[in-house]
Please model this.
Amino acid sequence: MADSSPQGAGGRDMSPATDSAAWADFSSALGRRLQEARHDLNLTQEQVASASGISTFTYQKLENGESNPGTPANPRLHTIASLAKVLKIDIGDLVSPPPDEATAPDRRRAEV
Model:
């Protein structure tokens, strides 16, 4: 009988539980980077939120890596770009590769 579990590239387990855990880690890392960048500039959560055009509550949730309790943050691209601008940080430094790409081989390197 064939294995019916979903697998991503390279045969990695992409079941909902595994995927959710990976996204929770991804969201937590984003939150830590937001907080570090904010502290580097000596800004309050309220200042960053206001300058980014989001509510303080929403910003606090992003720093905590969640949208709702138990749900990883999933901010819009516009929000990420606004936060990066306010925090004077490159988007690439703010957001790490998504979980399904973080462990994938670098295809660009293989083409060189």
Summary: Residues 16-40 form the longest helix (25 residues). Residues 1-18, 102-112 have pLDDT under 50 and may be disordered. Residues 34 and 63 are 6 Å apart (CA to CA). The longest strand covers residues 66-68.
